# Entry
Amino acid sequence: MRKSIAFFVCFSLWATPTLAHKVVFSVYDEGESVEGEVGFSNGDMAVGAKIEIFDKNNQKLSEIISDEDGFFKLPLKGDGPFTFQANLGAGHIAEVVLERDVAISAQRQQGEVNTIQAVIGGAELEKIINRSVASQIKPLTKELAAYKEQNDLQKILGGLGYILGIAGIGFYFAARHKLQGQSK
Amino acid sequence: MHIVDGALSGEVVIVGSALAAAGTAYGLKSLDMDKIPQAGVLSAVFFVASLVHVPIGFSSVHLIMNGLAGLVLGWAAFPTLLVALLLQAVFFGFGGLTVLGINALNIALPAVIIGILCRRGVRSQNAKIAAIWGGVAGSLAIAFTTLFVALSLALSGEEFIAAAKLVFVAHIPVMVIEGLLCASAVYLMNKVKPELFGALTVTAVQKVDA
# Structure
């Protein structure tokens, strides 16, 4: 009995690293359809993962298999909330809830399109979108640049580690030199 | 204090690298086993001190601590500071790989000069006198370094007086801080471990005994 417990403990410990990845699962509402992607936190995409979709009453609506990029797309009409469950095997599961209210979103969308088209032409609109996107990603690019420039603790510790290592190599040669001197 | 890639002319970079290589070779010879730990610690000090860093024009201002390295290590300051400079260039992007030699020369040669000039002073029995010498060493090492940096810039075509003034003035706060730091470090070492500054003579005596 004790042996089998030990065996079990060993195996559960051994299995831990494979469970260490987090599942990254995102779903985007496209109005009449839904697309999404699923993968692991280390950057690998989940190929051929089964994604099941449930409605608000927990009734299964449909299921789909992700493609080789971990991507999936399916038509999905009606009111939400919809629950997406991805099972990637080996204990990797993830769940995302997509809120959707058809009446409200349709109203809002139509309203937006009407106003925009009434007020500005196509070229002007493109300019505005470009400007808006540029201003939105500005803080991101700044943050990215700052992140690249950052001298964090890891770098400092890394440098100190190198110095320690070089000192060790120095010791090695000094000691060898000394020993050779003694043997003569 | 690190000059960046591309700020100097090719000749200056090449001559600087050659001189730095010579200094490093000579320094490695003088770096015996007893001194390796000190070299490692001072290399680490230099490496971390440079993170207190304010960019100014082509160069940049930060703590350097080369005076202390010169006092303790003498010529061994060359390989010690070269290692730290290399790591700074790789990890932090300070200076650059092509100007590594000239940067090492500009920082380690003042350290060596200071070591020769001030070592007698910091060996003083009186800890206060030793500390004053330490302070002088710390500040003077920075002053010499600014002079060398200005000289490198001048040899690459900038006007010496202007460059020297700019670099020197920018480093006055660093001189003050390093003078104080170096003085307190020397005071402490003088109290706790006076043989640090006499490492050379102690080993020389040991060798004679052996």
Remarks:
- Helices of chain A lie at 2-19, 102-119, 122-149, 153-183.
- The domain at 2-101 of chain A is CATH 2.60.40.1930 (Immunoglobulin-like).
- Strands of chain A lie at 23-29, 33-40, 50-54, 60-65, 71-75, 82-87, 93-98.
